[in-house]
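JOB MANIFEST
job_type = single_chain_structure
chain_count = 1
residues = 751
[input]
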Amino acid sequence: MMNKQKGCRIAAAVLAGLLLLSAFAIQLAGGRGPLPDWQQLRAALGVPLRTEESAPKPASGSTAVYVLDVGQGDAVLICQDGVYCLIDTGPAEAEEALLYDLHTLDVESLDYLVLTHPHADHTGNARAVLSNFPVKQLLLPLWEPGADDTADWPRQLAESAAENGTELITAEPEDCYPLGGGTLMILQGGSGDAASVNDISLCTMFTAGNGVILITTKKGSKKEGFGVRYSGNFTWSTVAETLKMQERYGQGTDGVYNKAASSSWGSELDGHMVEAWNGEQRAYSKYGNKLEDYFNTGFAHNHNVSISNVTDKSHFRASFGSSNNKGLFPNEKLDKINIDLNAGAEMNKYLSMEGKVSLSRTKAEDRPYFGSYGVIAQLIGIPHNVSLDDLKNYSTENSAHVNWAGPNPGLENPYYVQDQRHNSDERWRAFGYYNAKINFTDWLHFSAKYAFDYYRTRVQSTDLSNGIGKTIENITDDRMSRSEENFFESNAEFILAGDNRIGENFRIGYTVGANFMYQKFETLSAETKDMVNKNQWIFNAANILNSAAEDGHERATNSVFASAQLAWKEYLSMDLTARNDWSSTLPSSNRSFFYPSANLSFIITDFLRSLDKTLPSWLTFAKVRLSAAQVGKDTEPYNLYNTLSYAFSNGVLNITKSDIKKNDQLKPEISSSYEAGLDMKFLNNRLGFDFTYYNSRTKNQIMKVPAPAPWSGGKMINSGLIVNQGFEFMLYSTPVQTKDFTFDLNIQECI
């Protein structure tokens, strides 16, 4: 009889296989796959990687909080004013996903890494984060190690922190740390009692301006089993504040009421009966607040349900999320759905598999227009004695557009403006990966991974025209436009990796791998004019095809890479990488390019301590480093040969030739950089400096330069040698540091 645990593993493996089939099914439609195993690829390239669609950083002064998907663990990234704080790192099996997310969010360094709990689902990737990103401070809970499987984690993290120049801090209640324009505060610390390790958990609170984010982590339970979770919320919103305007006078000029006037400097609003703009009798009074009465009460409801099961050899998680929003503006909607599947299984000590697929749809209708095309600009100018109810009937048999004054291009009925233009956009996205790993020994493994990303975006807009001086039937300049984008990218990668320790002092890590990237992008757009039946927006029911265009590209890059990491007693290390790419965007004679790198670092203080030398009490850390690296770059697709373009414009087919002279002899761009640096810290990290000399040389830079007629757009060339060199010096200090207050003073100089 099959036992329960084995059954769960087989079920998880079957689900992971289904995820792979889903990935290939979507590939048939045509994405962008995350480059898998970021740690190894980063080492192979010798530089931090970035995706082509890096997530934008929040605007200055704003706050962003990202809950990162690390399976059964926890990881939260806070960014405030360009300062980053990562709270927990998730389990070790989520290392690739965590590093990928951090790189995608354009994280280059971390000011704080906070580990709230000693169990592996919180700390599993801490050392990987310390190895891949500069981290200023590592915050740990107060805890005395005991006789359980977490006993060695503080020592291991302390070693990693020392290797990477990270300050190690034991967080205590009421400790405060500056985070951009906000503050990270420790509300609750660890118990310090190893016998109650599940109660050791930091509780943190982040404040910025009037906002507060309370972050509590679950206790480190190791319970296995099946679980169902639901969360939901409901939000109502109204207009909070409006512009203050004079409320004493009504429509007219020079203190005299005039129903045809477009200004509000008539006589005082006293309630007497007057003939209104539409010929009806109305009380000459203030009719509500236009900037409040026009808008609806917004309503949003969000729901999420997840099902998961965990054993010691397998896991799966499925979740469904739904978000529905009705905005303040009439007809404004925003709906989202998200479906996530994640599964993995350790089949035996040699083979493990995992996969993930995420599917989402975002659909918006009637996003509000602003400026002169928007409703608000028209509401502001309406006199107080004009009722919004009278403006809702904006059309008559003789006129498509009537208003309290005018109408003219600068003075329109807000309800006509509301119905004149409509827009909608819809985006489907699917991405995921499947990974299989074979452990030949405890020091050598092989992994194969397929990752994909696909999205489809459709945007549509309609414009009835302003209708001034026309009936609905006589309108001929109404128009409808639609555009679609399809993007697909896949990455198939194979890596053989090993890590050996030779004796007690020497360690060597190495990787050999290959990556195959394919990308396809398509766009299609069209615009029609003069619909047969007004306000019935169907492409086939238009009198004129105004414009139509199709564009896109395909590209592929095949790569092989290798790396080696050598370390002697952890204070002397060397990293070597090499990579060769073959790009489809370059001519066949130049599409192969090779770029290596080498990095050498020597931690002087650790070397002296290994010799049992007593260091001066004022010296905390000293490190010298040397590096040399090359990075290769290809060009965008279709920069080799000039071609003809076909497109409809104003109902006429136009055949055009690019005004940029292409170049079928383009070479890959190669950037070489050389650095030497010295990093020293004193007085327990209260004072320090970082000195760097750099020299970068770029040859064959691909660029566009002016060219004679008929190439008014220029021509593509490989430019000559570009050299950039200089010195960077950073002095950092903490003149004042108490339990409740820290004052940092940093000075940077570049020459």
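[summary]
The first helix runs from residue 4 to 29.
The first strand starts at residue 63 and ends at 67.
exit_status = 0
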